[in-house]
Write a structure and sequence with these properties.
heterodimer; A: 331 residues; alpha/beta; 7-stranded parallel β-sheet; 3-stranded antiparallel β-sheet; 7 helices; 15 strands; 25% helix; 17% strand; B: 259 residues; alpha+beta; 6-stranded mixed β-sheet; 6 helices; 10 strands; elongated
Chain lengths: 331, 259
Amino acid sequence: MQYDLQPIDDNNRDCPNFGGSPITLPPDLEVGIRSVSLQIPTAWHRFAWLKEKLWPIATGKGIKVAVLDTGYSKHKYGPEPIAARSFINGQSWADRNGHGTHCAGTVLCRRDSDGNSIGWAPDADLIVGKVLSNEGSGGSDGIAAGIRWAAEQGAHVISMSLGGGGPDAGTNQAIDYAWSLGCMVIAAAGNSGYNGSNSIGWPAKYSNCLCTAAYRKDGAIANFSSGGREVDWAFPGQNIISFSTDGSSFQDMSGTSMATPGSAGLAACWVQRRLANGQAMFASAQDVRDHLSKALVDAGAPGDDVRFGKGIVDGNFLMSAILADLTGSGA
Amino acid sequence: MNLHQSILATVLAFLFASPGFCQLELTVTKAWHVQGVTLSGVIAGKVIAEDVVAPIVAKQVAILSAKSGSDLNSELRLEATNVNRQVVELERDASGKALLSAPGKTWVEVKEFVELDIGNGVKRKFLADSRVFVVEIGTSTPTPGPTPTPGPSDPNKWSKLFNVSKQAADALNDASTRAKLKAATAAAILELEGSGQTLEQAKAAYTAAIELVLISRNSAERKVQWDTWRLANAAELKQVGVESLADYLLALKAIGSAL
């Protein structure tokens, strides 16, 4: 079965194939272009604990994150990709949409001279797979091929801020294949909101794919964030500041598309410490889920719920999950 | 003596008397020639690695580089003899530099030849200058097989660590990562020896070196739990107690030899 896939963000009001209905936004979630800055701009999602607690022990260095999206446009705070390929006929991997570039920035924006970044894994390597066109759509065959290609490039984490309305066996098999090569696969929950019935999109709905929801600055779940038992965790997803395609300015966007690369960046740091310790890579999405209780703090309804999943990332909790008792051992 | 011979004799006399001569220099760079590691590149600036099967053998070598202070277009040749005045063969590295590996003292003579036209287009090379340098390098230091290198304090202190490292690595059945860890350990030992680092600095450096290997594991290798090897080694190090940098280096040799 083939289906059309769209980038998931609330700014795309014309995504007819996602979740079956157009996404409507409150007016304060419009895209805004920020002024060009020599420094990384302040942002509510630029948590102090990232700089103070996480990055001293893990920055994603040596970890390859594949962003499968609309491509990438080099930003002054962004790296050159170590591998890039387009799966869209007639289009290079260059991003003429902006969605993929924004997502890449959220994963691995480099640090400024003050050590700040709006990315989560500021030293991670970037793999770019253009599986969505400049117009913002793509096919499941291209997605599946992109997943397989990224895993074969040695990606440790695949971030997919995209989704569609139905399952696809080829995509699911590609996801399983990626895990078999030691590559985590994460996808956006979707922007259909939640009215009591499961609204998670595919491939995030697939059991072997981690599913990321979005929350707001005030800690509440974003109203657009899809809900369902598949939600594993929630990350900042509203008014997220990241790269624009002009190469130097920043742009804010909202959606579970913006939350997903945050989770991918965090995963990169987690994987870095895990591999450095000598531990094996996570074997499956369930393997990650089994460890999430040590890394997350509960949010929303008590326990594992349909909006926040197992919760949100907290600096203190995260440390216990990613540190093994090898520090200073000299072995 | 014809005119040409007369001029030539004058030129040579001038050359030998010129302050531009007697400016032969020999730069000696000590390095380690490592066998028994599998590497695709150079470990560090002064380590020459060979892709050979274990065990690790680290041999000190001297890289000889001669130069002349004269501005003549001359040719420099190196000739080496040992204490018994027997010729010592010099090897060449990939860049053509001479390598001396014979342990002990070696007398290296740098000879400078200049080519002169002796008439009618006939050219001959003349020895214009020479200088002898004494180069001394350490003796061969093979890293041990079944037991760690004896230490100055307690030869058997780290023998159990060797067994711990070997058993933990054997159980993992990951030859590729094992070889890389072995190489990283050998490189770390060479870098740390004589580095003047504190014990804590050395521990941090070695930890960083092996973590780099572990992070860089490829897809298949990512499934292997090398933390069991690290934890076992760490426990043994803690149990025995590392007292000094020299002690730690012996421990690392035990760990590396077991890989």
